[in-house]
Amino acid sequence: MKLPRIPSSEITPKALYLRRREFLAAAGAAFATVTTRDLRAAGLDDVRIPLRVAKKVATTTDAVTPYSTTTTYNNFYEFGSTKDAPSKFGKNFKPKPWSVAVEGFCGKPGTYSLEDILKPHSIEERVYCHRCVEGWSIVVPWDGFSLGDLLKRFEPTGDAKFVEFLTIVRPDEMPGQKGRFTAILPWPYVEGLRIDEAMHPLTMLAVGLYGEELPNQNGAPLRLVVPWKYGFKSIKSIVKIRFTNAQTHSTWMKEEPLYYGFYANVNPLPTNSTFRDQSVERRLGEFIMRKTLPFNGYADQVGSMYTGLDLRRNF
Question: Which domain holds residue 269?
Fold first, then answer.
């Protein structure tokens, strides 16, 4: 039997393999509490922390985008405005320890540690299509849990009509938040959803991808994923959740109101937005353009939430 030839680029160097094996042996049962920063400090920059995934759900039959593409082609302006800036400049970001402040119209406001937030929830993997207003898309297996299940724990009141989210501000670790980049966006980054959108079963809070902890460039340690909306709605590195009675005036709405509306539902038809044509998209890794599907292909699940809403005006 002839064995397949493995390219040398895919073979782990012996020295790295031995160091990793020694490190894991020393960590023993405590490995589950080791952070990515700890591993990097030990000289193991390429080590990924696996997650315990209880259930896997596929919402599309499309091929999954390679991990290397998903983690190196990103919009995360806190690290810079180019697609490779997050993976280049996100290495010094410290996603642990972490806490999230909960405010507004709810029965249980307060500051919750990442461990508090994760403890009652089992992690599941959902394969979602992810669409960007710039005309490209990817398919990602996100690991996390229902945002609605988390929000219910805070007991939102009847006055909670919207949910607002804020990203962390750490200019010493996020170079896009200082120097000449400060004119691009005001910080912190702010986004929001209607309460019914936030509670929808498809809306998730992601803590990982591809069965591993979220890399810094993808929004570690906690990010929103709303698969029927354009990517800028899926805010990263969340540090505040606020229940409000008024629609959030989000970051991109303030900066480019003709391009970015509050709803950001994927819509292939012309809208009041003067932004580029959204009728087609390019799946990263493919050369042929695809037709863009209404609500990014999730119309059957979410379309009823917008019955009677003029999607041309509410883009």
Answer: 50-306
